[in-house]
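User: Sequence for Asteroid domain-containing protein below. C-alpha cells please.
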Amino acid sequence: MGVSGLSSYIRGDSSSFRQTRLHNSLIVLDGKNIINNLYYNSGILTQYNGEYMAFDVATEQFILKLRQCNLTPIFVIDGLNEMSKMRTILNRKRDRLITCFNLQTAATDLPLRDGGFEDFRIRLLPSLACQSFLSTLDRLGVLHITVDFEADQVAAALAIHLGAPLISNDSDFYIFAPYWASSGGLTYIPTDLCDFETPRSFDGGYYLEAQMFVAREGRTFQGLAPIQRPLFAVLCGNDYIPFGYFDNYIPEPATQQHFVEHDDQAASRSAGPSRKSAKFQRVVDWLSGFGGDIVEPVNRIISGFPLAERPQAAQYLLAGLASYSVPMDQVTPYLEYLFGGKPPSCRVRQVIPHDLHPSSQEYGLRALQSLAEGNSDPQLIAEWSPRLMKAFRQRRIQPGYCDALYSFGIVMSPRVEDVKNRESIHLCSLPLRQLFVGILVEATAADRLNLPGINFAHDRPLFYEYRRVGSSSFQKHEVPFERLPLFGSKAFAFLRQKLCLPNRPPVIPAWLHGLACILFLWARFDARPETARLCYSPIALAVCACAIAAQMRLLGGGGGRGGRSGRGRGRGRGRGGSGDNGARVAMVRHFESLRPSYVTEPLNFSFLHALAQLQSVHYGLATLVSL
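Assistant: C-alpha cells for Asteroid domain-containing protein:
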C-alpha cells in the first residue's frame, strides 16, 4: 500500500530516523500489517492452509512482550473495501492467484519434494488468520477495532489524538500528520524497525527499542511543510493514481537538470529505483519552492493538462489528497467504543480550514478542501442497529461479505488450492453468502441509494462477486438472493430451517456440534463422491479427530476454552482467558515432532483444497451466525 518505492527511498536517509524507547504508554498498531508480520516472520508454514495453533502461540507471545514493557496495544483493522480501489484490489488478488498456480506447479513437478520445503512457504495468509489473531486478542483482553473502510486514516487520527506511537509498514504513514498544528505530530515507527523480540531492562522496567520517523529533521522531506507531503505522495503516485499519471506534468525546479538516462546507462544498472529516487527528489525540490502552500502548485499541475483532460486529472488528484485527510473530528465513536463514555482528550490542537466553497475551476482550493475534509462518502453502516454495529467493530460480521452491499462486490481471495483441476474453493460456501446478504439487506432497512453494491433492477435483486475461474483469471459473477426477514427468529432455529442443519443432542458440546455443521454443509455444497457419505470421509474424520484431541489437550492443560472474553472495553490490561499458553506451546511442539525427517510427504492438493473449502464454510457460517 502507499507510494511504490517510498519506504526504500526514506530508509536510505539515516537522518530521517531517531532511536526511541517504547514503554508505559498506549500504542496504535496497524492490525493487518501486524498479522502479516507475525505470521510470515514466526517460521509458520503457509503452504498447508493454516497453522493456527502455532499462530495463536506466536500472537500470545507478542502480546506478552508488549505487556512486559507496560505497553497497551490498540489494533486498528481495515473494514470495507473502497469503490475507488477496485482495480488495485483485483490486481492484488490476481497476483495471489499466480502465486498459487506457481506453488502447485513447483510442488507437483518431478522429482517430488517434501511439502515442508522452504521454497513452498509462499507469502499467502490462510483464510482464518485474522479471525485466529482476534480470537487470541479477545482471550487476552486486548483492545481492537474494525473501522468502516481502510484503517490508515483512522489509525493515524487515533494515534495523534492519543499522543501514541503508531506501528505499521505502510508507507502512507510517512505522509500523515496533523497538517494545521503548530506543534506535535504523528510518531510513526515502521514495524521492522521495532525490536519486538527482545525487551530490554532499565531502572523503570522494560522497553522495546525502535527507530521513529522524524520528517522535520531528516533530509528526505527537507523544505516540505507537513501539508505538502500528501501532494508529494499524489504526484508520485499512490493507490488512487494510475502509474506515472502526473510524471510529465511536474515542472523542473530551477536549480535541477531534467533527469535523463541513456539506454547504455539503464542497461548497466537497475534503473527502476534510481528513477524513482530522482522523481521523488524532483517533486520535493519543486514543491519546497512554494513555502508551505499547496494551492498554487495544484493549480499549476492541473493547468498543464489539455483542457479536456483537466476534470479527470483533478478527480485523481483530489481523490488522492482525500485519502491523506486525517479525520480528527470523526474518531469520537471509535474512542467511545474503545474507552467507554469518557475517552482521553486530544493531545494536539489545530485549526482546520472549513467553509472554503471553491468553484469547480478553483483546483487549488478544492485540493485544500479535500485534504481538510476528506471524502464526502455517506456513513453507509450508520443506520445499523447497535448490536450489528458492535458485531462489525468486533469483526464478528466480516467486512468482506458486507462489500456485497456497500462496495463493488465480494472479492474471494485464492488460497492454497487445486487451481489447475478444481473450481474455486469458495463455490461451496456461496449459499451462505446468499443467505447473509439477504438477511443483512432486510435487517438494515437502508435506502437503495445507500446500497451501491446491490442491483435491484431485476425480479430478484443481485449482488456481485469476483471468483477464480480456472487457474489464471478472476471473473465477475451476478449472484441472485432473496431478502429474508428474521422477525425475532431464534438463530439456530432459523439456520436449521434454511440450511437443514442437524440438531444437537444434549450430550454433544456446542463447539463439536458447530464443527459437525461445518462438515455437513461442506459435504452438501461440495457434492462430490468423496464427500457423499460424510461418515466415511477420511478428511472429515481427520478434522474431527484433530479438533477433539486439541480440545482435550487444552482443557487438560489449563489452556482455557479460547472464548472471546475481551469485547473492546476498558484499557485492555486484563489478561482474559488463562494467559498461559503452555498447553498450546506443548501441542505445537508435539505436532511438529510427529513428522519423521526422513519421510518425504509431497503437498496433496486434493486434501489442501478440501481444507480450504472447510475454512471457507467456517468463515461464512460464523459470519452468518453473527447476524
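The chain has 21 helices and eleven strands.
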